Amino acid sequence: MTTTGFGPSGIVQVGASRVDLTTASIARAMSGALVSGPAGSLVGGFSIDSRTLRPGDLFFAIVGDRLDGHRFVDAAGSAGARGFVVSDTSSVSREAAAGAVVIHVTDTTRALQALARAIRRESGSRVVAVTGSAGKTTTKDIAAAFLETRYRVFCTHGNLNNHIGLPLSLLELRHGPDVAVLEMGMNHAGEIRLLTGLAEPDVRVWTNVAEVHAEFFTSIEAIADAKAEILEGSDIDTVVIANAADARVMARVQASAARVVTFGVDAQADVMATDVVDAGISGTTARVATPAGKAVFTIPLLGRGHLSNVLAGTAVALQFGVPLDVVADRASRLKPAPRRGEVWRLGDGIALVDDSYNSNPRALQRMLDVMASEHRFARRVAVLGEMLELGEQGMRWHQECGRSAARAGVSRLVTVGGPAARAMADAAVEAGLEAADVTHVATSRDAADVVSGVLRPGDLVLVKGSRGVRMDVVADLVRDQRQETVN
Fold first, then answer.
1. Residues near 284 by Cβ (< 8 Å), separated by ≥ 6?
2. Are the C-beta atoms of residues 431 and 368 closer than 8 Å to each other?
3. Tell me, what's the pLDDT at 4?
4. Backbone torsions φ then ψ of 457, nearest 5 degrees
5. Nearest residue to 398 via CA among 437, 439, 427
6. How many other C-beta atoms are found inside a 10 Å radius of the C-beta of residue 352?
7. Average confidence (pLDDT) over 453-466
8. Which of 122, 105, 51 is nearest to 80 (CA)?
9. Residue of 147, 149, 165, 148 lying closest to 157 (CA atoms)
């Protein structure tokens, strides 16, 4: 039996159970019609992709902007699907239907979401949801790592954080984890509202507000309002964990009915870091004060942005009664997710910071701050890809980042992409970098060729950019050519 609400000292109580799903109960949860197949048949898993479907899965024929899943029903059947959820029964051939379950619904995406919400409620798992403009994936992973020291935890895989990915994550609650830590992403107003309504989080984490997806919003205040949708539906049994150092976050959480717990670096907060020591690519050390006591945290992740993420994860862990000394010990052994600030020690004394997964102005500034605090290398080399989806202010932000690169002491700068990336290069020269030390190229392949010719022994190299610019190509070439020795 699940215990809801808070126990002594406000600790979130947990207790979950496995949810066994029959085809009849699945159809009922989705308001669908079971048109063929046995009503009492158990379903092993769920899939929206015939290429990764496992035998026994129920296949949802999702209709997207570019692809219609109904085209792949036969392929799913050949891969061993137990059955199909479709809005067009004619897509299920006689061969695929033979012995299979077929559930007809009006809209397959909404059906997936309805099933996910039903499982979330029946499982009894406690749900932690994380949103923010930057750091949400890392914060999600950190919170899960801390909670795993005491509980059975499910964590969103990768960044399955949208209207389809989050429901797929919620379906995993059928296995009965004590806690699920889920990520919520958005690039339009209303998306966080939908996800919050599906997940009904017990604990809601809001990391920050920054200039991301700005082309879809009229202002940063509008971005903040869209992120604030995570507060909707909260009540006195809800915990909201908020960044005390972000004025836009704090201005909005004050109106929430939830119990607000704050975190912050050098900001007055419930979970607060002070006496921060920046150790370049070795991470940070800080004194952390919490309602559960104080501890020194040594964090191998890069920069104060990651320190803030650790504080958010610490606030989550404390809500679930994880001892502070356990959290501090686990924090000292954290590792970055692939391409999110990974440090590779290469041949010839070269160090590569692979932060090529994505980029925005705030995240780039944080990495440049790391570069500026690092004095153990002969040169600082930055290979920076264009930051996409920044809207009308994109040119200005690229220029400011170019100036920041110059202030950070970058010796060699390569920018990659279109006119905005060129503006970043030009601004760096205007801020003091020698024109001969700044190169702009159109593609990541061109950048890889440039970098291979300019690296010297003892260089520190930062590679960062939006996913669409494919800066991973540059990072991989540096690693391959210089033969990494230590990760």
1. 276, 277, 278, 298, 299, 301, 303, 304, 306, 307
2. no
3. 39
4. -55, 140
5. 427
6. 25
7. 95
8. 51
9. 165
Distance CA 91, CA 84 (A): 10
Amino acid at 63: V
Whole-number pLDDT of residue 11: 65
Which candidate, 318, 319, 265, places its Cα nearest to that of 287?
265
* Cβ neighbours for 42, distance < 8 A, ≥ 6 positions apart: 20, 21, 22
Give yes or no for a contact between 447 and 414, defined as CB atoms under 8 angstroms apart: yes
**Which residues make Cβ contacts (< 8 Å) with residue 352, sequence separation at least 6?**
343, 344, 346, 461, 463, 475, 478, 479, 482, 484
324 or 487, which is more confident:
324
Alpha helices (H) in 22-164, listed in sequence order: 23-29, 73-78, 94-97, 108-123, 136-147
| Residue in the structure block whose two tokens are 């392929």 | 75
- Overall average pLDDT of the 141-150 stretch: 97
Residues in the chain: 487
Q: How far is CA 191 from CA 64, 69, 195, 238, 447, in A?
A: 16, 22, 6, 20, 36
Q: Which structural domains are found in the chain, ordered by start?
A: 23-112 (3.40.1390.10), 124-331 (3.40.1190.10), 342-482 (3.90.190.20)
Give the CA angle between residues 373, 309, 191 to the nearest 5°.
125
Residue 46 Cα to chain centre, angstroms? 22
- Residue whose C-alpha is closest to residue 306's, from 145, 136, 51: 136
What is the DSSP secondary-structure string of 185-221?
--SSTTHHHHHHHHH--SEEEE----SSSGGGSSSHH
* pLDDT, tens digit (0-9, with 9 covering 90-100), for 331-349: 999 999 899 999 999 999 9
For the chain, what is the radius of gyration of the CA atoms? 24
Residue 3 phi, psi (nearest 5): -95, 125
**DSSP string covering 123-190, please?**
H--EEEEEE-SSSHHHHHHHHHHHHTTTS-EEE--TT--STTHHHHHHHGGGG--SEEEEE---SSTT
| Confidence at residue 19, expressed as pLDDT on a 0 to 100 scale | 77
| pLDDT tens, position by position, 274-307 | 999 999 999 999 999 999 999 999 999 999 999 9
Helices then strands, each counted (H, E), the chain: 16, 20
- Which residues touch 290 (CB under 8 Å, ≥6 apart)? 270, 271, 272, 314, 315, 318, 324
pTM reported for the whole predicted model: 0.91
